[in-house]
Amino acid sequence: MKELLKKVVVAIIQYEAKLVLKKYKPKIIVIVGSVGKTTTKDSIYAVLKKTFFVRKSTKSFNSEIGVPLTILGLQNAWSNPFLWLKNIIEGALLVLLKNTYPEWLVLEVGADHPGDIRRVAAWIKADVVVLTRLPDVPVHVEFFDSPEAVVEEKLSILEALKAEGALVLNVDDEKLDGVRKRFPHKNIVTFGLGTHHTVGASHVGIMSKNKKPTGTRFHLRINGEDIPLELPRVLGKQHIYPSLAAAAVGAALNIDSEKIASSFREHVPAPGRMCILSGVKDTTIIDDTYNSSPVAVDEALNVLEQTNPAGRKIVVLGDMLELGKYSIDEHKRTGKRVAEVADVLLTVGFRARDIAQGALQNRMHGSNIFQYDDVERAGKELEHMIESGDVILLKASQSIRMEKAVEEIMADPLRAPELLVRQDAEWKSR
């Protein structure tokens, strides 16, 4: 009965969303990929909001229910039937009455199962499609026949792109570079590291003070201009690529280059995505707890390798979920990489034990490896373990709730609702 009610609610909300699009005719930007969708969405919104009346997906609303909720401007009612009824009524009023509606929608679209994106592409027509990155072993691969099937599912969003629409591609990803050959007639805008793309980046580096990382710097190359930029409180390509994607969208919409650059200087990043936090005992936290996948862990560890702290490099990693038959190998491979860049490893979860195994097999001393099943216990013991000058990277799939460990070691836990992921009442009750 519960599943039937869910299907009915999804059908009603989606039908209302279709009617809203038909009535108000907003222009639509759709973001698809296996890495960086939410940060890219937020960055695009930051670029567009000074020029247009724009709405973006809330948090990571990218599912069969999240996309129509964004279109309707409504919140997730979770398991509350009365709030869902309220949402349905408000959606109907938006259709029936005259309302002010955004000129642009920035929609994040994800794929948990085969057909998820194709179903969205069947009823949304996009003015701009942004493809971020498609790694070799994406998250959710366990529900598909192969990683290649995940890629094809992601690329099915191109069925939604209008004939005159713009396709924005991360061409540092070879899979996406090949898309240009498959769709030569499209208006394609490219972005990537280097200066040979429509929008590029150079002079990439980590900012630091007193041997503590403080942010990321790079030069944005756009419309023939070279603009120095700094992104305080965040680290890594994980923020450079979304900035480049957003700049590419801005360029496609003829927004002034300096206005694009200024939007990044003012943008406040979402929590849990390579964010720098102050830790207890004069330590530095790299909070990457939003979610995890093999390619995202690799990028986070690459950043950690580039830091030069006064103390140790400590890595706290939890299970990477939905990897199917690739799970053991990918966790062990991650452990090998940890052994190359870190001094201490803590793992959380059953699958993450293979990370510890991979580190042990690659000469990380067993006395520097600690394994836990409970994230809160890991956080409490980590608090006793850390020392002044240490840099601590924390990352896991969202159901591990690694943000709880961050809260144990952050210098100002009263700011957790502001600085950490999954702080709303629904998540806190789980």
Going by CATH, the architecture of the largest domain would be 3-Layer(aba) Sandwich
The backbone outline, from C-alpha atoms, is globular
Overall residue-averaged pLDDT value? 92
Low-confidence stretches: none
Radius of gyration: 22 Å
Number of helices: 17
Major β-sheet strand ordering:
2-3-1-4-5-6-7-8-9
Total beta strands: 15
CATH class of the largest domain: Alpha Beta
Total number of domains: 2
What structural class do helix, strand and pairing data support? alpha/beta
State the end-to-end CA separation: 23 Å
The helix content, as a percent range, equals 25-40%
Annotated CATH topology of the largest domain: UDP-N-acetylmuramoyl-L-alanine:D-glutamate ligase
CATH superfamily of the largest domain: Mur-like, catalytic domain
**Percentage of residues in strands:** 15-25%
Summarize the main sheet: 9 strands, mixed
What does this molecule look like?
The structure is a single chain. The protein has 430 residues and is an alpha/beta fold. It folds into 2 domains: 2-266, UDP-N-acetylmuramoyl-L-alanine:D-glutamate ligase, CATH 3.40.1190.10; 275-428, Mur ligase, C-terminal domain (Protein-Tyrosine Phosphatase, Chain A, Alpha-Beta Complex), CATH 3.90.190. The chain is 39% helix and 23% strand. The strands form 2 sheets. Strands 2-3-1-4-5-6-7-8-9 form a 9-stranded mixed β-sheet, sandwiched between helices. A 6-stranded mixed β-sheet has the order 10-11-15-12-13-14, with helices on both faces. Helix 1 (2-24) packs across helix 3 (66-72) and helix 2 (37-48) crosses helix 10. The two termini are 23 Å apart.
